[in-house]
C-alpha cells in the first residue's frame, strides 16, 4: 500500500485537490436536492474511505509483537530534524511524499464526515478525524509490528481532515446559495401566477 507515495508529485497532488473540490461541489449540490440520500451516500463512502485508511495504516509490516517500538514525538523531526541532513535527495523526496500522502489520506474523511454531520461545524469533522488518527497511532504502538508512531502523522492527518472539512463547508455553502437562487425565481413566478 505504501507504494502509492511513489506517485505523489505536484501533478498528482493538483489532480487530487481538483478532484476533491469537484466531488465536494457535485456531492453537495446533489445532496441538497436529496438530503436523505445524501447522508446515506456520505455514510457509505465514509465507511469505504475509513476501511482504506485502516488497511493502509494498520496492516503490520512485521509480525505482531516483534518490532522495535519507534515513537517520534517531536513535531517536524522527520521533515527537518537532525537526521534529515544525512538523507539522499531521493530519500528526502520520499519523506515529503509520505507526509503529503498522510494529509491527502484524511481529506476525503474530512469531506464525508462534514457531509454526515449536517449542521455541525467543520471543527467537529476535524476533531473526529484527529481523534481517529490518535487512535490509529495508539494501535500501531500496541501492535508493535514495524510501524513508527509519529506525531507528524497525527498533525498531517488532521491538516488533511481540516482541508477536507473546509472544502466541504465551502461547497455546502455554495450549493445552498445556488439552490436558494434557483428556487427564488420559481416562487416569484408561482406567486404572480396565483395573484
Automatic annotation (TrEMBL):
InterPro entries: Teicoplanin_resist-assoc, VanZ-like
Segments passing through the bilayer: 12-32, 44-61, 94-115, 122-142, 154-174
One Pfam family linked to the record: VanZ
Domain of life from the UniProt record: Bacteria
Domain VanZ-like: 45-169
Keyword list, A-Z: Membrane, Transmembrane, Transmembrane helix
PANTHER family from the UniProt entry: INTEGRAL MEMBRANE PROTEIN (PTHR36834:SF1), MEMBRANE PROTEIN-RELATED (PTHR36834)
Record's protein name: VanZ family protein
Naturally occurring in which organism (per UniProt): Streptomyces griseoviridis
